[in-house]
Amino acid sequence: MLMKKIIDLLHDVQNLTISENTSCKQLTTFKVGGYCTAVFPSTVDAFISCIEILKKNDAKFIVIGNGSNILFDDDGYDGIVVVTTELKQLVVSENRISAECGVPLHTLCTAASGASLAGLQFAYGIPGTVGGAVFMNAGAYDGEIKDCIVDVTCFDPETSKLIKLTKEECDFSYRHSAFEDNGLIIVGADFELSYGDKNEIKREMSEIIGKRRDKQPLNYPSAGSAFKRYPGRYTAKMIDEAGLKGYSVGGAQISEKHAGFIINRKNATCRDIKELVDTVKSVIKDKEGIDIECEIRFIK
Ligand SMILES: Cc1cc2nc3c(=O)[nH]c(=O)nc-3n(C[C@H](O)[C@H](O)[C@H](O)COP(=O)(O)OP(=O)(O)OC[C@H]3O[C@@H](n4cnc5c(N)ncnc54)[C@H](O)[C@@H]3O)c2cc1C
């Protein structure tokens, strides 16, 4: 009943597409999960109005980007999934780029290289959005999103105010930001880059994409590296050395190409993936005596 009332209220918001009975498979790169009601704001005003309605009515909700680091439950999600992928405005001004939260990293990197701006090459090929990358402090090849962030514009659902957090206030560390705990919604981010040689920037980007294609099982659905790096150790190497490459639970498998990836080999369920994660954690605990941490965020 409450859900119906909320959906009715959301119908009054302009520039907001509502999609009931959406498969979570379509909202994530893992292609796993039951059904949910998803909403797609295409302007910041619609995004904020939507969050305000959800907050005011005590509705359960989650904001997601491209769904490339999350896993929905097999029972789906019984709240509202706010998907930011239509919030795609991007402005390049001298050596700065302002991007809305739904801008794909691919677009951000291409805009930077097109303007001869260096600093984001590392992010080329990470299949996330600006919002997801800020939330996760996404990183690769010795770079992290925090390295080029100036500030992050957020909406505070408690006060209904738009605020800017400086890079320091975002409290970035390895695959962590303050957004994991502060309840703020990321609306956009400002990046500061350095001027560089356009051809050299593009060459680095294609080299990085090449490495990804060589090393990662990109022909199967996944959420990227399933486990965080353990200080001083390569988690994928530990998993490989434990003989777990190719190990499966149901349709989920430890990739034979890259032991750090769990792939959806054939109709994997969330349950399969969770069981596989738990097995890997316990094997590594027994063998190495350390607790490795899962990087994928389970949404229930
Ligand atoms: C093939 C593959 C390769 C990958 N390689 C890498 C890699 O090299 N490095 C790396 O770091 N990651 C990698 N990833 C993981 C993933 O792409 C990144 O973590 C990415 O930054 C997630 O962005 P997203 O938009 O998909 O976020 P989502 O998965 O949609 O969300 C991630 C988290 O951020 C929150 N969130 C998203 N948007 C907002 C917002 N606007 N406001 C508040 N919270 C928000 C969500 O609630 C969720 O908790 C890879 C994934 C795949 C599938």
Summary of the model, kept short:
With 300 residues, this protein is an alpha+beta fold. It is built from 8 helices and 19 strands. It has 3 domains: 82 residues, 2-Layer Sandwich (Uridine Diphospho-n-acetylenolpyruvylglucosamine Reductase, domain 2), CATH 3.30.43.10; 111 residues, Uridine Diphospho-n-acetylenolpyruvylglucosamine Reductase, domain 3, CATH 3.30.465; 83 residues, UDP-N-acetylenolpyruvoylglucosamine reductase, C-terminal domain (Uridine Diphospho-n-acetylenolpyruvylglucosamine Reductase, domain 1, Alpha-Beta Complex).
Number of domains: 3
Q: In angstroms, what is the radius of gyration?
A: 20 Å
Q: In sequence order, what are the helices and strands, one letter per element?
A: HEEHEEEEEHEHEEEEHEEHEHEEEHE
CATH-derived architecture of the largest domain: 2-Layer Sandwich
* Helix/strand/pairing category: alpha+beta
Instruction: Kindly provide the name of the CATH class of the largest domain.
Output: Alpha Beta
Enumerate the spans where pLDDT stays under 50 for 5 or more consecutive residues. none
Attached small molecules: flavin-adenine dinucleotide
Q: What is the tally of helical segments?
A: 8
**CATH topology tier name of the largest domain:** Uridine Diphospho-n-acetylenolpyruvylglucosamine Reductase, domain 3
What does the oligomeric state look like here? single chain
In order across it, which strands form the biggest sheet? 6-7-13-11-12
Q: Total number of β-strand segments? A: 19
Shape call:
globular
| Sheet with most strands | 5 strands, antiparallel
Strand content: 25-35%
